Structure formats: C-alpha cells, structure tokens
Amino acid sequence: MNHIRSLLQNLTGVLRAEPLSDKVRQQIGDMESDYERTAFLPISNLGMKTVLSRNEVWVMLKDTRFRPPPRPTVYMVEELGDNEVPQDQVLAVEGKSYRILGEEVLPDSSSVSDDARPIGDGFVFYPRRRKNPKIPSYFLIPPIEFKELEGMREQLGIDNVVSVSPSSFTDQHIRVELGYPLDDAYATILIGFDNV
Questions:
Q1: What are the Cα distances from residue 74, in Å, to 46, 77, 160, 162, 167?
Q2: CA 65 to CA 13: how far, in whole Å?
C-alpha cells in the first residue's frame, strides 16, 4: 500500500493520495446514483460504477500540473443496434459498444472531424451520426485507463486498473470528508484496482 501511495504522490501535480474508506465509497456511490437520476440531461457515470466495483479505491488530489487524460472523459452516445458503424465512431466500454454522437475535446486534440459542431467550450456534437431519434442518447462518463499504475501492475500485485473524475458535487464531498482544500485550483480523481 505504501508503494502505491508513494508512486501516486510522486506524480507531477499530485498533492495527496490515499485509499477511500468503505463509508466514503458507499456515500459517493449513492451520490452519483442520485445525480444520474436527477440530472437535467440523461447521464450514465459508468466510470464511477466501474471504479467502485474494484477491490480498492484510491483518491488523488491534483492540481493543473497533472497530465491531461489520455482520451475524452465525457461522450454523448447511443447504444449500438445491429447496424454497421465505422470504427472511429464506436466507443467500447466494459463489454458494450456505443455510437459516439459527441465528445469532449481535449486541449491537445487535433483529431476532431470536419463535421463536428462545437457545443460550448470543449465539447463537440456530430449531427450526421444520429440516424434514429427513437434510440435514446445520453452522456456517458467512461472509466479511463491510469497508465502510471497499469505499467506497474505486476510489481504492485494489482490488476484491472481504471480511473474516473467524479462529478463536482461528489468531488466537493470527498474533499470535505478527507480535509482537502475546496479551492477550484484542485480536483480529485478516483482510481480503482483489484488485488491479485
């Protein structure tokens, strides 16, 4: 456990790292479920469900120096039926496939297609991809790989490493519970993994 704490806290931009208690895990799972049910727009935080399903869940407090995510952290999707979809329009998560109707645009991203329409800052929508309005679409927050632990799985005795950024409401709750500063310059990331 000390090896994981040391590894995480030595990453650029990480101020603290520690395992979450079962109590806090239950609280944030309930909070995220409530958020999904009451959100103004349909949303599925599959990333949170995946992280919380792991044996261990750690939280990191980070600042802006921490690396950007390796891929978008929010998508607008619809579940795939039997129709063929080009691979660059498919998001595969936890054994399920989705058609990407929109996605977060990361600051260093140059791979947004020409038919993308911006929706606010940092998000694009692909209107031509929406083929059947009868198929429900919603925002999906997927689990994200966490390369720093993934690359050390064998040495650390862990597997199935994933991470997620919690909603702002859950982020604030975690910070209050753990005594982290509530300053907007910081944010939390949850990391889940199984012990082997």
A1: 11, 10, 21, 15, 11
A2: 4
**Do 80 and 136 fall within a single domain?**
yes
Domain limit, last residue, from 103, 123, 140 = 140
* Domain that includes residue 99, residue range: 75-140
In whole angstroms, give the CA distance from residue 71 to residue 61.
20
Q: pLDDT tens digits, the chain, 196 residues: what are they?
A: 678 999 999 999 999 999 999 999 999 999 988 888 887 888 899 999 999 999 999 999 999 999 999 999 999 999 886 667 788 888 988 888 899 999 998 877 666 677 788 887 789 999 888 878 888 899 999 999 999 999 999 999 999 999 999 988 899 999 999 999 999 999 999 999 999 8
Is the pTM higher than 0.85? The answer reads yes
> 61 with 154, same domain?
yes
Instruction: For 20-32, give the secondary structure using H, E and C.
Output: CCHHHHHHHHHHH
